[in-house]
Design a protein that fits this description.
CATH superfamily of chain B: Cytochrome c oxidase, subunit III, four-helix bundle
Strand order of the largest sheet of chain B: 1-2
Distance between the termini of chain B: 58 Å
Distance between the termini of chain A: 110 Å
Strand content of chain B: under 5%
Number of strands of chain A: 0
Oligomer: heterodimer
Shape of chain B: elongated
Number of domains of chain B: 1
Structural class of chain B: mainly alpha
Chain lengths: ~160, ~230
């Protein structure tokens, strides 16, 4: 049985050591760039919004290098590449749909999306309103006992017709 | 035919057809067995990624809801530990890939050495993680324990939702650390079997599969590092 045959898309293609070495160097460089970018953004707060997108972008770049070269997807059968892409797709669906919900709750009047100070204020106002309602409810006569308690006259004669 | 594989006794004497010891009967060829193992591990890695996705999505939701708490809480994390750990894991991925390269060229001793190096680097990672966890434990913060004290953490007691983010940190790094530990034991077993002469350039499926698992552990950390340590 032949071994060590280098056919494309097969299981035994030997990735050249130079490729592996260069991938490793690229990974370390990208890590340094990530840290450098973060320190730079700390120093320039006005560009702070770039933080998350850049971090994700660089991390995705590094992960792609690991997947393509260290895990060998580039030299592998296409089915494994399809599985890897499917993996990313499912994570994206999970993330996007969840965030679509949780980040837009304020738009429909829900309380999330406010700052914590606003939350605390709103909670206090809600509790005060609840107290108000409960106090008010005590003043509404419903049963004959209520009428007695409040000294209010019944609105209509509720005795059965003779 | 590799002489190494046939040296192992597996009770295969009653055979009238000729095939290597390591080739299971439900496979047509060793190539098909290898491809099948590779696809199988990729499918498993998809489930692992979705496991960690749950944590990442929770992170995204809570970071979006309480950004002030997020920044204050995660400022207590030490970037140096995270950066060193990243370099350690990246190097361990490189030694892992060199182990595969070695066994593909039938260099068993080299493979074993690379595997031991990978495990050692994993141990360094776990050591730094333990130091980090110890620092937090001494500050009264540990998984579900929340009594922040000490000059480094006591301000967190007054930050609303800070405990959520610390718990997210422990769950994310804890489950990842568990995966690193499992990987270390897996690779030790593979190295041990390699020393016994079980792997060769004809049959290194277990090495390949363990390698892919280890790379995934590295990828998870590649995402964890900037999201947890490099808040801007």
């Amino acid at each position: 049985m032949a071994h060590g045959h280098n056919h494309e898309g097969g299981g035994h293609f030997i990735i050249p050591q130079s490729v592996l070495r260069n991938t490793f160097i690229a990974l370390v460089v990208l890590t340094l760039i990530t840290v450098g970018t973060s320190l730079f953004l700390h120093a320039v707060p006005s560009l702070g919004f770039l933080g998350i997108p850049l971090a994700i972008l660089l991390a995705t770049g590094k992960a792609s290098l690991v997947v393509m070269y260290f895990m060998g997807i580039k030299y592998d059968k296409p089915i494994n590449g399809v599985i890897a892409i499917g993996m990313v797709l499912f994570v994206a669906i999970f993330l996007v749909f969840t965030l679509m919900d949780t980040t837009t709750r304020k738009a429909f009047g829900d309380r999330f999306g406010t700052t914590q100070m606003e939350e605390a204020e709103h909670w206090k106002a809600l509790k005060a309103r609840e107290k108000e309602i409960l106090e008010g409810a005590k003043k509404v006569p419903l049963t004959p006992a209520d009428y007695q308690r409040l000294g209010a006259a019944p609105v209509a004669d509720t005795t059965a017709a003779q | 035919m590799s002489t190494i594989a046939t040296a192992i006794e597996t009770g295969h004497q009653d055979h009238d057809h000729d095939h290597p010891e390591y080739l299971q009967h439900h496979f047509v060829s060793a190539d098909q067995q290898f491809d099948s193992a590779k696809m199988g591990i990729w499918l498993f890695l998809v489930t692992e990624v979705l496991l960690f996705s749950g944590i990442f999505v929770a992170y995204a939701v809570f970071r979006n809801w309480y950004p002030e708490s997020f920044h204050i809480t995660f400022s207590t994390l030490n970037i140096v530990y995270g950066f060193v750990n990243t370099c350690v894991l990246l190097t361990s991925s490189y030694t892992m890939v060199m182990a595969i390269n070695s066994i593909q060229n039938n260099q068993v001793d080299k493979m074993v050495n690379y595997l031991f190096t990978t495990v050692a680097l994993g141990a360094v990672f776990m050591l730094i993680k333990t130091i980090e966890y110890k620092e937090k434990y001494d500050g009264g913060i540990f998984f579900w324990l929340w009594e922040p004290h000490g000059h480094h953490y006591e301000h967190l007691a007054n930050v609303a939702y800070a405990s959520i983010f610390m718990k997210l940190y422990f769950v994310a790094t804890g489950i990842h650390g568990l995966h690193v530990l499992i990987g270390m034991f897996l690779l030790l077993w593979v190295a041990w079997k390699g020393k016994e002469g079980r792997w060769s350039s004809d049959y290194y499926n277990y090495v390949e599969v363990s390698g892919l698992y280890w790379h995934l552990v590295d990828i998870i950390w590649i995402f964890l590092f900037p999201l947890l340590y490099l808040t801007s």
